[in-house]
Write a structure and sequence with these properties.
Strand order of the largest sheet: 5-4-3-2-1-6
GO molecular function, one term: transmembrane transporter activity
Low-confidence stretches: 1-28, 456-460
Radius of gyration: 26 Å
Subcellular location: Cell membrane
Protein name: Branched-chain amino acid ABC transporter permease
CATH class of the largest domain: Mainly Alpha
Structural class: alpha+beta
Organism: Prosthecodimorpha hirschii
Shape: elongated
Pfam family, one: BPD_transp_2
Largest sheet: 6 strands, mixed
Number of strands: 11
């Protein structure tokens, strides 16, 4: 087997769920629907009661959206409001995967087509003020047939809880990936690599550069560039991780845990300073990618999920499953388990330890790269110092699940992501990170082996020279 062969094959397969999802799940009308409907409160006179009756594509031109509505305009000279049925047509700069699909380029109101100057003022002073738009849309009503009802109608409290469970999918996926990377290395060597958070940061920057470079060259919309950015991030981060494994862990693994712990802290700081000097200290941002909301549950509190959230959860689930199955059935997985159980006996039986170590770090680096892609595509921003807290919370997830246990690491990531999201929703968010770190203390005191680990295995790993 070539060095990192399993890691490379797994990394390539990681792209497939994203590519299929981008092709199948993109809703090209959702962002246009929201933009066009949000223009109604500013088009109609103040105090008008607006009821949206129907929103549909304009058959006259692809990318245009028409909103039909009923308006009860206040009339100071009449006893009752003046009811009017009207429609507006919004023209956008593209459709499908085209980059300009969210750019409003024209508007036809009941009074005629808006001039270019008035359109620009509308975009600048109305659409850009999200708070004002949100407040105004609270006064807009929808006819029963105008708004999708979702799978079920739920109460406000239940809807809010369901929304938090949906929101927990992304951080859970992030922490599961990094916790799995921690456990791959710890399970093999009994050592912790504290640089995985910064490797995820490196993957996030590689994603930003890949998408930004493609946009500069006119290669397509961000959604179409995402699979190529993912491959670029995996290539960069896996190479760095493999070099860390060969250059630092191989010579220091036999010298005890303390030298390696200090060395990985140094690697973490070096990566931060490297990226900070090369890319600058300012945060890098990407435009929202595939963030169209899809209604899951209706009722007093609507529960929505975006296309990107579905892609992340689906893609990460497939990636994690591939790793877990591959570690049980592939030759690399057998070599990894043999070396983890008894490195000296594995060497006598012909296991190439350098190759297995390098492949392990490459696979762990690929997982960190995917975590970086998750950060960038879902949250938009990336900074050179963000890896520290993300890496520490992923380490908490690995310890909670049972560090060294691959399924336990995944479960720990799910639990930490869920706990973080629920705390942020129901309690002061400023205490969120402190609470997660307290979980680390609780588990180290009460159950240091974690949920899936065993005390004997933990003691054996810790006792390695």
């Amino acid at each position: 087997m070539n060095i990192g062969g399993f890691a490379v094959r797994a990394a390539v397969v990681l792209v497939l769920p994203v590519w299929i999802g981008v092709a199948a799940c993109a809703d090209v009308e959702a962002v246009q629907r929201r933009t066009c409907e949000s223009l109604l409160p500013v088009i109609e006179p103040a105090g008008t009661r607006i009821t949206i009756q129907k929103t549909e594509p304009d058959p006259r031109r692809a990318g245009n959206v028409r909103v039909f509505y009923h308006a009860e305009r206040p009339d100071p000279d009449a006893v009752s409001p003046d009811p009017v049925d009207a429609a507006i047509t919004c023209a956008f700069g593209g459709s499908g995967f085209e980059a300009g699909k969210a750019d409003l380029i024209g508007l036809e109101t009941p009074d005629g087509v808006l001039s270019e100057i008035r359109l620009q003022m509308l975009k600048r002073f109305w659409l850009s003020d999200l708070g004002a738009v949100s407040e105004a849309m609270r006064q807009v009503e929808w006819a029963p047939e105008a708004r999708p009802a979702g799978l079920l109608a739920v109460s406000g409290a239940h809807g809010f809880l369901l929304q938090q469970l949906v929101n927990a999918g992304a951080p859970s996926a992030l922490y599961a990936l990094l916790a799995l990377a921690y456990s791959l290395v710890y399970g093999l060597l009994g050592r912790i690599n504290l640089a995985f958070g910064d490797l995820a940061m490196l993957g996030a920057y590689a994603t930003v550069l890949g998408i930004a470079g493609g946009l500069t060259l006119g290669a397509g919309a961000p959604g179409l560039l995402l699979p190529f950015a993912l491959l670029f991030a995996i290539s960069v981060t896996a190479a760095w991780s493999g070099a860390i494994g060969l250059g630092i862990f191989r010579p220091l693994a036999a010298r005890g845990a303390q030298p390696l712990l200090v060395a990985t802290i140094g690697v973490s700081l070096a990566l931060q300073e490297f990226v900070g000097r090369v890319q600058g200290v300012k945060e890098r941002w990407l435009p929202p990618i595939l963030n169209e909301p899809h209604l899951l549950f209706g009722g007093a509190y609507e529960v929505v999920v975006t296309t990107m959230q579905m892609l992340v959860v689906g893609g990460v689930s497939v990636a994690v499953l591939l790793v877990l199955v591959g570690m049980r059935r592939s030759r690399f997985g057998r070599d990894w388990r043999a070396m983890a159980d008894d490195a000296a006996m594995a060497a006598l039986l012909g296991v190439d330890q350098d190759r297995t170590l390098t492949a392990t770090f490459q696979l762990a680096g690929a997982l960190a790269a995917v975590a970086g892609v998750v950060i960038t595509t879902l949250y938009g921003g990336t900074s050179f110092h963000m890896g520290t807290i993300i890496g520490l919370k992923a380490l908490v997830a690995a310890i909670v699940g049972g560090i060294g246990s691959l399924p336990g690491a995944v479960l720990g990531g799910l639990l930490i992501g869920l706990a973080e999201t629920l705390w942020s929703a129901y309690h002061p968010i400023v205490w969120r990170d402190a609470v997660i770190m307290m979980l680390l203390v609780v588990f180290l005191v009460l159950r240091p082996e974690g949920l899936f680990g065993t005390r004997a295995a933990l003691e054996e790993k810790s006792a390695r020279p």
